[in-house]
Structures are given as C-alpha cells and as structure tokens.
Design goal:
globular; four-stranded antiparallel beta sheet
Length: 126
C-alpha cells in the first residue's frame, strides 16, 4: 500500500494560488494513478482530481475545472496539484491517494477507509 505525504497547504486570499505536493515515501509512483480529495468541516470527502500513471490523462470535478491542474514528476516520486483563483468554497483539508480507476474515468480512492495520510490544510479567506 502506498505511503503518501501531502504538503503545500496554506492560508491565502480569494483569487490566490497554491501548489500542493504529494510524495511517496517508499514505493515508486510511476505505476499508480493518483487522485486528490478534499474534506471541509461537516462535509463528506470529495474527489477533486485524478492523474494517470504517465500523466497523459487527467480528470477534474466540475467546480475546479479551468482553475486546478494536476501534474506529476515520476522521477521525483511526486504528484502536484496547482490551484489558481482560489475561492472560499475550496477551503478544506486536501489528501492524495491511489485512484481506483487507472484511467481516471472516475475520481475514486482505491481504499475507502484505509491509507489516508495527514493531509494539508488549505484556507481561503479575506
């Protein structure tokens, strides 16, 4: 099972940008599709984006299309999520995890209850 560490979260004003990182501690990421998920207080965890193992295919939830971009550098065992024009509704704890669908046809974690890391906090406020 992948051991992933998220970082890069911070507090920004509306319209600001952040770049989140997801690093594999042991296993190489080159064979794994990776999804980004977020959870705001009192709400269910939501799939945000997915990038396939090669980086050729991506998928995004409608609310972030045109603003968020997933990318990866397999040589560094790292997946990124660049977030632009952040809105208050984007505020949440962001997690990365292996995606169930290798082609990212749907943003869904491989393991619903296991393998979640610490996450990284994103706050958007004036």
């Amino acid at each position: 099972q992948l051991q992933l560490v998220e970082s890069g979260g911070s507090s920004v004003e509306p319209g600001g940008s952040l770049r989140l990182s997801c690093v594999a501690a042991r296993l190489p990421l080159e064979h794994f599709p990776i999804g980004w998920f977020r959870q705001a207080p009192g709400k269910e965890r939501e799939g945000v984006s997915c990038i396939d193992s090669s980086g050729d295919k991506t998928n995004y939830v409608d609310s972030v299309k045109g603003r968020f971009t997933a990318s990866r550098d397999n040589a560094k065992n790292t997946v990124y999520l660049e977030m632009n024009n952040l809105k208050p509704e984007d505020a949440a704890v962001y997690y990365c995890a292996e995606n169930f669908y290798s082609d990212c046809r749907r943003i869904r974690p491989e393991y619903e209850d296991d393998g979640w890391g610490q996450g990284t906090q994103v706050t958007v406020s004036s």
